[in-house]
Amino acid sequence: MTNSKIKHFVVIITLCFSFACKQEKGQLIEIEGKQIPVDSSLSGIDSLTAFIAPYKKRVDEVLDSTLAHAPRSLDLNDGERNTSMGNFLADLIFEETAPLFKTKTGKELDFVIMNHGGVRAILSAGPVTARNAYEIMPFENYISVVELDGTAVRNLVLYLAGARRAHPIAGMQIVMDQDGGLESITIGDSPFDESRSYFVATSDYLVAGGSEIGFFPNVESTTDTGYLLRNAIIDHFRKKDTLTGQVDDRFIMKDQ
Amino acid sequence: MKRRDFLKQTAATSSFVGLGGLGLNSCAHFGQKKITILHTNDVHSHIETFPSTHARWANLGGVARRAALVESIRNENPNTLLFDAGDIFQGTPYFNFYGGELEFKLMSKLKYDAATIGNHDFDNGIGGLLAQVPHASFELLSANYDFTNTEMDGYTKPYKIYSIDGIKIGVYGLGIQLEGLVLKRLCKETQYLNPFEVALDTERQLKEKENCDLVICLSHLGYDYANPNRPSDTQLAERTSYTDLIIGGHTHTFLDKPDVRTNQKGNSVLVNQVGCYGINLGRIDFYFDSQKNASANGVSITV
Asked: What is the ipTM of this complex?
């Protein structure tokens, strides 16, 4: 596919144009179009490579210094309803956001929801660098905390239960029966109470997407933390020596 | 994708197809003026060549190489303009670290003439874009983003006219709908105006008032969508009257060849897009014959 796309192409067409009033400048008589691949047949201009070098050096130094260690790889498809990478990420967002939110508003964070598609990379076993954080979260998305009423929380859980992919969660447990119905929802240490509101940390992308994206069609209020998701990940890498995550029972469907 | 396949012949056969009964009798470039348009889109902060281990783009791209290519083409034809169709920012840590400074500085070193603004160029907010403007020696063109109530007010132009070797080239920019794509926090009070309406006004201005010989649109609308009412380059080509070339972006479309569409006046419009990440450089050469009555009214399009 790639080869056909970067090849030169040559097709000729003749068409009628009228440029009668422009004859003193000459008429447009011919147009040639082609696409030139920027490949290894070209050698880069040295002065430009030299210009880029200090920028590159700084990026490489920062991104490639080891911040932590992952004894085992964290994956996004090792569980049915929750995954080691998703759990790791949702847990770290809870851990990094709860104190910030408490300081900012005096309120307690209840749980975390992220979208599966927003986690752009897995974590391979071995040394972990800031470059991994850029791979996991390349976008400039911030952590927002939304306030949801009980009905909105129930609808959110139903949305998660009906989703094809395992959206990462933390701070809550969802148990579905063998028919896919909701058996129980536990938030923190208590059963879900539909008469109260909850505070949910998530990506501002999902909040801004509203009903279009599906997670948060109805929010009571939104608190922007101003904390970049990627920075939360990097801060977490710096604090921890060893990074682990596993598939657990936070979101399960009971067997027959 | 309605391609006019019956119009196409490969150059290998060196054959010409007459349309409307008008033959083409001038293939020689004697006494001609030649304008070369070079273009990129969706480079997304890709500064370095992809590593040899890359699954898809191994050993492709890289600004230093693109610079060498552009330089060789400029040496061959000094009457060359270089454009970008937006999404200059976001995609590698260079953007996260330097906010687009390096991208703009390098584009200035490559002597880009103009770029339009893509949705990701708002990723560090209006202020983040403004902060990089001092690093750009090229114009930012957008006819359908109204920045009046933002910090960017006065730092973009709807269009620019280049006079090269007696040929007037009018270039305008169009951006994609921001709602649902760019957070309000980032684009703030930027107003998105209907690109179809703005294009018709702008191209008429360029053709009828400014007497441009060529009209070029730098578009970040996207190549083609199933919904014909969703603004796209193919729709734009068919709804306009004077635009000769649409340089597209946003959809990261790797066209096998530039698309040739028919406009409201029955004339041909070229729509081109060269994928993404600086993997390709687009090149369109326009030949003008200085001899009166030369070659009747035929324009040969070789794509």
From this structure: 0.87
